[in-house]
Amino acid sequence: MTGMSRDRYVDFLRAWAIVLVVLGHWLITALVREPDGRITAPELLATVPWTQWLTLAFQIMPLFFLAGGHAAGGSWSRARAAGGTPAGWLGRRALRLLLPVGVYSGAVLLAVGVCAAVGVDRDTLALVGWAMAMQFWFLPVYLLLSALTPALYAAHLRWGPRVPLALGTAALAADTLVVTAHAPFVGLLDYVLVWCVAYQLGFCWRDGLLSGRRALPLTMAAGGGLAFAGLVALGPFPVSLILVTGQHPSNTDPPSAAMLAWVVAQTGLALLAAPPLRRLLDRERVWRVVRPVGAASMTLYLWHMLPVLAVAAAFYLTGLAPEPTLGSAAWWGLRVPWLLVLGAVLAGVVTALKPLERGLGALYGRTVPDAGLRRAWPLWLGLALDVVALGRFAVQGFAPGGRFPVLPALGLVAGTALVVLPRWWPAADRQERPQVTRAPDRV
């Protein structure tokens, strides 16, 4: 791969990760129509415990952070070589994420405000608000890692694989305190440390420090897998790689030592699969299928629970949907048409949003290509507000207690506005930077 071209396999990993996240969320979503007409969503992983094993197939976010680190390392290297500043690079990268997130959040918050005003049942509104924000945990973590990328990449250039090793050691120490001393605030560090290991491994992968020797990926895959199995079988950790209510400790809230082992195992498997999959992706017919999915990955990730609400209203509120016992053979048999219908609805949503995506792309294209450190403070303040607001949505949903979330909504609006602010600076104040011809960055 040249520095001017995209790595198809990295794009495939991100697309594959998003598709599995969507399918996983749809698969475990269970809806029940109560005698009073309300729709409830019993937790499949808690009600049918054996389904927690399914999360081993669908918890694929380590690959997303791995691919994200690979892409960010290349993007920052090119920007730095062209004379760009950390603030300028981060501003453009953050906008790539925040513009679609802002549109999605604005649409959901508008709907929440209208529903709250007309007196929709608070429990129902809280459930819907949680469902529409369940995927938001990823956003503040990714923004933080993006903000740290220049420093993380500098550390990578100096110490290489020793950086993820040190981060992993710190994550294990923090998780030990979480499990033994019940220190939840210490666990917040693991949201950054564990996912940063995958992100940093992406740097190492891009720079050839993990490839070329088949024994290393094989060791990572086998060692990470065995460590995960040992921590589940002998340690205190559950098998589920998705949060299960009442389960302590959890592997995701915060990310645990078992999740760290899973990161290492998935990285090894991704490296082992790279050569044959790269050959497959070199076929244009295959790439023509993968590329649109990758291009629409953010739309798929943000909007994939909207079809669930549409199908719930059309089939469950009306009583048209059959409702066999949760977890029964008949219930699993109905998962096939359930997934097909949701897929068709989501395809319609993605198609309808294409004009909006083009508009966001045009807006992004008009942003200032770079900004001097003198003007960086709006960016850092804006990102701080966005991280806090998105974190609140991730934890509490868009309608905590069935009410409109005033403070998080204002924080997201103010934070995004501060990140976008540089495009309104007078043209004379803009700091011109050398331009390089290259493929556009993706989050």
How would you characterize the overall build of this protein?
Residues 8-350 form the Acyltransferase domain. The chain crosses the membrane at residues 12-32, 52-76, 97-120, 132-153, 165-185, 191-209, 221-244, 256-277, 298-318, 338-356, 377-395, 407-425. It comes from Streptomyces fuscichromogenes. InterPro entries: Acyl_transf_3_dom (IPR002656). GO terms for molecular function: acyltransferase activity, transferring groups other than amino-acyl groups. It is a single chain. With 443 residues, the protein is mostly helical. The protein has one domain. The protein has helices at 8-28, 44-47, 55-58, 61-81, 86-117, 122-131, 138-159, 162-181, 184-206, 215-233, 257-281, 284-295, 297-303, 306-316, 329-333, 335-352, 354-365, 377-396, 406-420; strands spanning 32-33, 39-40. A two-stranded antiparallel sheet has the order 1-2. The protein is globular and about 65 Å long.
Question: SSE layout and pairings?
Answer:
Blueprint (H helix, E strand, L loop, with lengths): L7 H21 L3 E2 L5 E2 L3 H4 L7 H4 L2 H21 L4 H32 L4 H10 L6 H22 L2 H20 L2 H23 L8 H19 L23 H25 L2 H12 L1 H7 L2 H11 L12 H5 L1 H18 L1 H12 L11 H20 L9 H15 L23
Task: Describe this structure in a few short sentences.
The protein is mainly alpha-helical. 68% of the residues lie in helices and 1% in strands. Mean pLDDT is 88; it is low at 424-442.
